[in-house]
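Next comes this protein:
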Amino acid sequence: MKKICFLILAFVQFISANDYTYKISSGFLEPEVNLVGEVIKEGFSRAGEKLEFQILPNQRSLINANSGINDGDGSRIWEIANFYPNLVRVSVPTHSIDLMILSKKKIFIKKLSDLKFYHVGVIRGMKIAEKIASENTPLSLTMSTNYINLMKMLGDGRLDFIIINKIALYTLISGYKDEAFYMHKKPLMSRLLYMHLHKKHAAMIPKFEKAFTSMHEDGTFKRIQMDFVKKMSAGNTNFLKVIEYD
């Protein structure tokens, strides 16, 4: 009888474990967050795990993942656990960013320390942009929860430039389409990003690493990114006018 009860309990635990739905969030803005979500969803599908993907404000996504309200965050810099110690890294990239300078005039940044001569704007919660800007002591540093506010300040001359993820340019409203902005062709910095789980799920890391690795090996990761960029680039006359310069 005891053996039967033990087997029933083990079966129930097995069913419960496999019925678990992971809540993974991302703080990227639309439409870029859709790219992150597509990669994460494919990874979970290959790992055979259920997923609820949530779009949250940048900082809130990290706070929820770190506190265990959610089970993880979709794409963050390698060293994010230095700021949020309850997060553990799945060490296969799920996204990447190119941090660009967007301005109303041509600005040449030869080295990061040149930021000290300018008024700079960044998105709050984009830790790598915050870190780059704050460590190089610009004349002023403005942090906002969205690019629209930063763009208004840039247009009004209250900022010299904003540090923006290149793909995030697709999130800007069409109201700027007749106004020219400049973007240096060379990124300030390019970084790979990784899914991070709450430490209570650390044992699942090898499973997810295997799933995301397979996406890189068979070309799925690259295809998802290229399809997204192609879709966003189609008919992009409704987006702001950006002039690239060397």
Remarks:
- Residues 7-16 have pLDDT under 50 and may be disordered.
- The helical segments are 2-18, 32-47, 58-67, 127-135, 147-155, 205-217, 220-233.
- Residues 98-189+239-245 form a domain with the D-Maltodextrin-Binding Protein; domain 2 fold (CATH 3.40.190.10).
